[in-house]
């Protein structure tokens, strides 16, 4: 087998791995980096535009964010926007739409009103939209048909214009790799069809056995989604953690029903995104509804059965895991949510069940107006901590302080790719005694 050494090897060519490669090239003195992707293209899985909500999560219309979380996320969300503007990617893979979170009924409308008063400090562009205002900017959330209006009280909070809301993170991943290779005059390489089978550390080197070679590295960052924990377990790390892969699916309307993003109020008990409707930038802005949330015994959704067997190896099922599952199902909200989302995946039943939920956004929606979005949606790993006995929501990250990092679930999703990269950079340069130009980094992303 051939063998080549790099200072840093990144496993996983999605948005997080691509952003890290770009940041290493642009802000550090690291001279040799390899990005390894097991499939034949950059961002083939969750970062692919068809596999996520294409949303820049700023915290303004995500009602499960606390004030402090929103304040942090608002800053993080500017980073991919700054990057896209620097390279003139607006209206290429980054777009501006109106956006809002819609409250339906007295309780949700009161929540929207109170959040507006508090959160406008962070987001001064926020507006409140009552039913009359919504008739002009998002008429399909108001009218049941061409004559009658919905009877419930509704109130929305959001931004009408001027905010970037939408990114094709797959296209952005490609740009990040290309720009990293352009910036660096050193040894920055992309290896496609490069499946890492095993990682071992011998002395001060990591040995990565792939499908056709052995690569060595001084430092390794694993950005492989659900497989990050799988590889960590192989190396003996984080044995107390397990993963519950949750697949998100979507439905397409047969026409454009919404002018912008319309989110629903989030149930705080649930870690999954509330149902929303968006103009899909990869489907001529047809309205796409979703995501659903289905627990799936696979680490990857569309790629054969290998990840099915790997899921059970990664789950490490025992009495502690069983108790966590039982405790989750005892909660009526969670149990009903899981049952409902299971129905969304069953042919013939799925559309009937889903349209009832989607009518909360578009009350005139009919069964014949939607179709299941085949091959759309990805898998997000939810981390289970056996020590705490809980399903842990939010970011999943294992920092070993031994030259290898495992990133599982970035928060808030792809939007946080540069924030995740910054954290990784700090660990990498400390471990390798390298230099990170933080002033240049801050100038690019925050000024």
TrEMBL record:
SUPFAM superfamilies: FAD/NAD(P)-binding domain. It holds the Pfam family Mqo. The keyword Transferase does not apply. Pathway: Carbohydrate metabolism; tricarboxylic acid cycle; oxaloacetate from (S)-malate (quinone route): step 1/1. Its EC number is 1.1.5.4. InterPro entries: FAD/NAD-bd_sf (IPR036188), MQO (IPR006231). Its cofactor is FAD. Keywords: FAD, Flavoprotein, Oxidoreductase, Tricarboxylic acid cycle. Coiled coil: none annotated. It comes from the Bacteria. It catalyses: (S)-malate + a quinone = a quinol + oxaloacetate. GO terms for molecular function: L-malate dehydrogenase (quinone) activity. Belongs to the MQO family. This is malate dehydrogenase (quinone).
């Amino acid at each position: 087998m051939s063998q080549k050494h790099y200072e840093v090897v990144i496993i996983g060519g999605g948005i997080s791995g691509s952003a890290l490669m770009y940041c290493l090239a642009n802000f550090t003195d690291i001279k040799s980096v390899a990005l390894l992707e097991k499939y034949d293209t950059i961002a083939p899985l969750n970062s692919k535009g068809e596999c996520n909500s294409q949303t820049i999560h700023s915290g303004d219309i995500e009602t499960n964010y606390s004030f402090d979380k929103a304040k942090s996320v608002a800053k993080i969300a500017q980073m991919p926007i700054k990057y896209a503007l620097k390279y003139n990617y607006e209206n290429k893979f980054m777009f501006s739409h109106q956006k809002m979170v819609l409250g339906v009924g007295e309780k949700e409308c009161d929540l929207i009103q109170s959040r507006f008063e508090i959160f406008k400090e962070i987001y001064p562009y926020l507006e409140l939209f009552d039913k009359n205002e919504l008739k002009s900017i998002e008429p399909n959330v108001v009218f049941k048909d061409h004559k009658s209006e919905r009877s419930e009280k509704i109130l929305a909070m959001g931004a009408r214009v001027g905010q970037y809301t939408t990114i094709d993170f797959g296209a952005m991943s490609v740009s990040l790799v290309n720009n990293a290779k352009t910036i660096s005059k050193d040894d920055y390489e992309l290896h496609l069809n490069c499946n890492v089978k095993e990682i071992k550390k011998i002395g001060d080197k990591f040995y990565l056995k792939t499908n056709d070679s052995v690569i060595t590295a001084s430092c390794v960052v694993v950005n492989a989604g659900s497989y990050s924990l799988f590889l960590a377990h192989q190396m003996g790390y984080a044995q107390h953690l397990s993963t519950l892969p949750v697949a998100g699916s979507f439905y397409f309307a047969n026409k454009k029903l919404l002018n912008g993003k319309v989110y629903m109020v989030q149930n705080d008990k649930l870690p999954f995104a509330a149902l929303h409707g968006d103009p899909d930038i990869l489907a001529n802005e047809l309205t796409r509804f979703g995501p659903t949330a289905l627990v799936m015994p696979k680490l990857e959704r569309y790629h054969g059965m290998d990840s099915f067997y790997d899921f059970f190896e990664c789950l490490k099922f025992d009495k502690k895991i069983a108790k966590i599952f039982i405790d989750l199902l005892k909660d009526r909200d969670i149990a009903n949510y899981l049952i409902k989302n299971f129905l969304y995946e069953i042919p013939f039943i799925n559309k009937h069940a889903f349209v009832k939920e989607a009518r909360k956004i578009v009350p005139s929606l009919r069964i014949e107006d939607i179709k299941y979005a085949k091959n759309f949606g990805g898998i997000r790993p939810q981390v289970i901590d056996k020590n705490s006995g809980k399903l842990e929501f939010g970011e999943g990250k294992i920092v070993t302080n031994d030259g290898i990092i495992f990133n599982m679930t970035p928060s808030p999703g792809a939007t946080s790719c540069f924030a995740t990269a910054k954290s990784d950079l700090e660990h990498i340069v400390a471990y390798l005694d390298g230099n990170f130009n933080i002033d240049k980094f801050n100038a690019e992303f925050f000024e």
